[in-house]
Structures are given as C-alpha cells and as structure tokens.
Design a protein that fits this description.
By secondary structure, the chain is α/β, with parallel strands linked by helices. The chain folds into two domains: about 55 residues, Vcp-like ATPase, Chain A, domain 2, CATH 3.10.330.20; about 190 residues, 3-Layer(aba) Sandwich (Rossmann fold). The protein is built from six helices and 15 strands. The strands form four sheets. A seven-stranded mixed sheet has the order 9-8-7-10-11-15-12, with helices on both faces. β13 and β14 form a beta hairpin. α1 runs antiparallel to α3. The chain is elongated. The mean pLDDT is about 95. Bound molecules: S-adenosylmethionine (SAM).
C-alpha cells in the first residue's frame, strides 16, 4: 500500500544531506530548522508526495524508507555493515524469501534488518551476540523495522553455546570468524553458503585457511569500493571525499567431501614398447 497511515515510517528529505527517518503520529509534529512538519498533513497522502513546512513554506519530500535508509539512520552501539557490503552478501549467499540464516554477531542489527527484509515472509534470521548492549540496541532496531516475526535475537556465543542444523546460510561479522568455522560447518545443509565480513587482511587469511581445512569449496574474498559520482554540466566526476575502506567479504559453499574411488585404480606406468622389429619401416 502506498498510502501513509498513522505510525508508519517515512523518510523526510529536504535535500541530499538533510533527511530524517520518522514515525508519523496523528496530532504530532516534527520541528526542523526550515519550519514545522505536521504529521496530519502527511497521513492519508501517498508516499512520494511533497509537503510544505509551516509557517516558512519550505518544500519537503516524503518517501517510503528503503532498507538502506533504515540502517544508515538506525541507533548503533557498534560499527555497522554498509549497504553495499550487505548487497554483496545477499548476492553471494543466495539469501532470499524462505531462507533460514544464522548471523553472529548481531551488533547494532544493521545487517540483521537487511537479511530480515529479504527472508520475508516465511524465512528466519537467528541472530546471536555476546554483548547485552548490542542485543538491546539491535532488538529496538528490529522492532522499528517491524521484523520481529522473521528475526530472533538472542544471547549466544557462536564459538561455544549456539546449536543449529539444516541452515541455508551462516553470516559472520565478528573479530575471530576463523575460530567459528569448524562449528558452523555442521549448522549448514550441504551446498549451504557461508559469508564473513572482516576489516583486516590478517583476519581474512586466517578465515580462508580455516575454510580450506574444513568441508568448504568455492572460497572467494572480495573488497567493494564505492564512489559517488557528482553529475554537473561539464563537471561530472567522482566526489573528492569517500569512505576508502569498509572491509573484506569472504564467501564459501559447504561441500561433502567424498574420497575419489578412481584414485586407487590409476593405470600403472606404461611399459616401454620394443620397436626394434620395425627398424626397416621406421628410422630408430
Ligand atoms: C561489528 S559488530 C557487528 C555489526 C553488525 N554486523 C551490524 O551490521 O550491525 C560485532 C559484534 O560481534 C559480537 N561478537 C564478538 N564475538 C562474538 C561471539 N563469539 N559470538 C557472538 N557474537 C560475538 C560483538 O559483541 C559485536 O556486537
């Protein structure tokens, strides 16, 4: 439905830099430096409309929030995953409607929100963290994003407490992912996918070595670099400042290793053929 109702979320935009993620409530308002926005002027209208502040009359745009708006504007107690990294995780894990996914650590729940949005309506995200502060903040964010039905957030140490089976994917964003690989391998169904986000190359190396030592295949690590392009007549170019580094993403697929039955039957070394009788025909 495109009509804005009482308690719905909106993204209110004055310009590219000044934008707010808000919950509209009947009879209430939001004060900006450009004037007051009355929610009653918004409720009942369509997403994508414009309204004007009172009394100054500045134009504000009202959009339906995207998952990326939620994560960039959400309350946080930890570093969060950025939308571009979340996007690659979706592509390389195949997480989609109906997927059963384990995530650790939850952190502020930014990635949890993105994953939750994609597994709807009948998939589930089982998300774990060992910090009470993170769990509290992430639960608030999940509630705000109205994802409580598809996301459960619990205390759990992925290195020892948590148990699962038959999952489609495991996604890790924690300091020591390599220590979790032996355990999470058993949580995955065959051909299930693994993803891990790490800010440093040292973490990536240890993670890849651990994956190679377990039953994982198709191991790939990527780094995404996003540049915004400023488009102006005769002056179109990348922006001067940018986020130069977020982290590295390592992906793998769970395989059941089977011993090669043909290896034992390798043909023995061919005997040397005596060609001396053919010396009339061929020059030896
Ligand atoms: C960088 S944050 C994750 C941020 C999250 N991806 C987001 O987008 O909001 C890392 C989290 O991993 C948690 N963590 C560290 N070790 C853990 C473990 N063994 N089991 C579960 N969570 C763990 C930390 O408490 C922290 O909250």
């Amino acid at each position: 439905m495109n009509i804005i109702k009482d308690t719905d979320h909106i993204l209110l935009m004055y310009d590219r830099k000044r934008k707010w993620l808000l919950k509209v409530r009947q009879g209430e308002n939001f004060a900006t430096h450009k004037g007051i926005v009355y929610f009653d002027d918004i409720i009942g209208k369509q997403y994508g409309t414009c309204i004007f502040t009172k009394p100054q009359g500045f134009k504000m745009r009202v959009f339906k929030p995207l998952p990326s708006d939620f994560i960039l504007k959400m309350g946080r107690t930890t570093q969060i995953l950025y939308p571009e990294d979340c996007g690659l995780i979706l592509m390389y894990t195949g997480i989609g409607p109906g997927s059963l996914v384990l995530e650790a650590g939850t952190g502020s729940g930014a990635l949890t929100c993105i994953l939750g949005n994609y597994v709807k309506p009948n998939g589930h995200i089982f998300s774990y963290d060992i910090r009470e502060k993170s769990l509290k903040q992430a639960k608030k964010n999940i509630q705000k994003a109205k994802l409580e039905n598809v996301v459960s957030i619990e205390y759990g140490d992925i290195l020892k407490d948590v148990e699962h089976s038959d999952l489609d994917s495991v996604v890790l964003d924690l300091a020591t992912p390599w220590l979790a690989i032996k355990r999470v391998k058993n949580f995955l169904k065959l051909s299930g996918t693994f993803a891990s986000f790490s800010p440093t190359i040292e973490q990536v190396k240890k993670t890849v070595v651990a994956l190679e030592g377990e039953e994982f295949y198709d191991i790939n690590t990527f780094e995404l670099i996003k540049r915004r392009i400023i488009v102006k007549e005769n002056a179109t170019r990348p922006t001067t400042r940018m986020i130069g580094h977020t982290g590295y993403l390592t992906f793998a697929r769970r395989i059941q290793e089977i011993e090669n039955p043909y290896q034992a039957k390798k043909p023995e070394k061919a005997e040397k053929v005596d060609l001396s009788d053919l010396s009339d025909i061929i020059k030896l």
